[in-house]
UniProtKB/TrEMBL annotation:
Residues 17-147 form the dUTPase-like domain. Coiled coil: none annotated. The gene is dut. Keywords: Hydrolase, Magnesium, Metal-binding, Nucleotide metabolism. Pfam families: dUTPase. Its EC number is 3.6.1.23. It comes from Streptomyces litchfieldiae. Belongs to the dUTPase family. Its cofactor is Mg(2+). Residues 138-170 are annotated as: Disordered. Pathway: Pyrimidine metabolism; dUMP biosynthesis; dUMP from dCTP (dUTP route): step 2/2. This is Deoxyuridine 5'-triphosphate nucleotidohydrolase.
Length: 170
């Protein structure tokens, strides 16, 4: 059964901006547009206005994610991906884009779709300080401790805490 939609209030700062809507049932995000034209040289970034502000219910946040098509076709990324929109934020949603293409300038026209907004429930936490944390299988292993990542000579190499490579599973 499809869960009931969450009601989110939206204010259009620019009345020409479409109300964000899902392209397909089941899509996680709704696209956001830029209301300003922009031209980004390779390596350049810009903070683009989207023409909308929202009021999320308590217990929710919205996350501004990049659009994969823009990334694949033009090398456009978001500097702070995903951008976090707090439930209490009433300002205009902005998107911090960067042109990661090494050669081509990217041009945005007003109302080009530049990012997507995903609304999610978020937990409120209380932190309880302890001297020792409970044990776990992973313990402190991180940053490639399971090995097999790209860019290493040996795909089974794992970098240990001392910076030395050791072999997983041997
Ligand atoms: O991509 C983004 C990220 C954030 N925001 C807005 C909504 C968010 O609620 C607010 C603050 O964002 P964040 O907490 O990430 O930034 P900060 O640098 O920690 O600012 P602050 O000190 O205001 O929390 O800025 C955007 O419009 N776009
Ligand atoms: Mg903050």
């Amino acid at each position: 059964m499809t869960p009931a939609p969450v009601d989110v209030l939206i204010r259009r700062i620019d009345p020409a901006v479409p109300i964000p809507s899902r392209a397909h049932p089941g899509d996680a995000g709704v696209d956001l547009v830029t209301t300003e034209a922009a031209e980004l040289a390779p390596g350049e970034r810009a903070v683009l206005p989207t023409g909308v502000s929202i009021a999320l219910p308590d217990g929710y946040a919205a996350f501004v994610h990049p659009r994969s098509g823009l990334a694949a076709r033009c090398g456009v990324a978001m500097v702070n991906a995903p951008g976090t929109i707090d439930a209490g934020y009433r300002g205009e949603i902005k998107v911090i884009v960067i042109n990661l293409d090494p050669r081509e300038t990217v041009r945005f026209q007003p109302f080009d779709r530049i990012a997507q907004l995903v609304v999610q429930r978020v937990e409120t936490v209380r932190f309880h300080e302890v001297a020792e944390l409970p044990g776990s299988a992973r313990a402190s292993g991180g940053f490639g401790s399971t090995g097999g990542h790209a860019g290493t000579d040996n795909p089974y190499a794992a970098v240990g805490p001392g910076g030395t490579a050791d072999r997983k599973g041997q």
